[in-house]
Amino acid sequence: MIGTNGVGSVAGGLADQLRNPHGAPGRLIGAAMRLVNRQPNSFAIQALDVRASHDVLELGFGPGEGIRTLARLSPAGTIYGVDQSPTMLAQASARNRAAILRGHVQLSRAQFIETELPEQSVDRILAVNVAYFWSDGPAVLAELDRVLRPGGRISIYVTDVATMAHWQFSTSGHHRVFSASQLSDLLVDGPFAPCRITVKSITLRFGISGLLGVVAKPR
Ligand SMILES: C[S@@+](CC[C@H](N)C(=O)[O-])C[C@H]1O[C@@H](n2cnc3c(N)ncnc32)[C@H](O)[C@@H]1O
After folding, report:
1. Which atom belonging to ligand 1 lies closest to the Cα atom of 65?
2. Which of 48, 60, 160, 167 places its Cα 20 to 30 Å from the Cα of 18?
3. DSSP state letters, 108-122
4. Residue whose CA is closest, atom 26 of ligand 1?
5. What is the pLDDT of residues 34-69, one digit of tens each?
6. Is 20 in the pocket of ligand 1 (CB under 6 A)?
7. CA angle 95–31–19, rounded 5-degree value
8. What is the Å distance from ligand 1's center to 130 Cα?
9. Is 156 in a helix, a strand, or coil?
């Protein structure tokens, strides 16, 4: 029988894998994320309004499904992705091999606060299920502002604390969780004009409450 500590350590292990997928469990987590994160990715990518020649950055690409969709939406742009996990880099690279060989997709192992992209090099930034791991939110937002071109847009999805509170892994200390006002406060505290920030609540399958934050950078 698994006691409270056993359940707690399983939840902690899952949270740690979601933050930094590694080894065989990390590969399984990647396969699961590809399926369960499809709907939030779809909402966030729709809000991004990607055009055919946009250069796009995905922050924390995980298994690389979002990268694949972005590459389809922008055949004439370059799709960049950064993620700290070598396991996810391998999975996403395998999933986007042909586009990587053509130079259409460029994936690298890097940190949210140091994407290693040049200043004002992208038109769009996608960040799905990653803000939980922004231990230094202002530093991440400063980095996004640095690489985003004027007129650019950022789309951020997180699951609402109202749902996350029911998921034991999210309370094990690895995730920062958000209500709509907390996500809004995070974004407003960053370098972007408050009037160009929107946060809206969305409902996903199985009654999951999500939050979609969109930031538009003035031209
Ligand atoms: C929960 S997964 C989300 C993956 C993908 N966006 C999706 O929706 O399926 C979070 C991803 O962020 C990455 N990550 C977490 N902290 C990071 C950091 N500080 N710098 C770069 N990547 C990070 C993890 O390696 C993982 O692949």
Report:
1. 9
2. 48
3. EE-BTTB--PPTT-E
4. 62
5. 999 999 999 999 999 999 999 999 999 999 999 999
6. yes
7. 100
8. 5
9. strand
Q: Does 21 sit in the ligand 1 pocket, CB within 6 Å?
A: yes
Cα separation, 64 vs 74, in Å, equals 15
Q: Which residues contact 19 (CB under 8 A, 6 or more apart)?
A: 132, 133, 174, 175
The length of the chain in residues reads 219
Fold of the domain spanning 4-216: Rossmann fold (3.40.50)
How far is C-alpha 111 from the chain's CA centre?
12
CA angle 123, 128, 134 (to 5 degrees): 95
For residues 81 and 67, is the Cβ–Cβ distance under 8 A? yes
Is any atom of ligand 1 closer than 6 Å to the C-beta of 134? Answer: no
Each residue's pLDDT tens digit, 70-102: 999 999 999 999 999 999 999 999 999 999 999
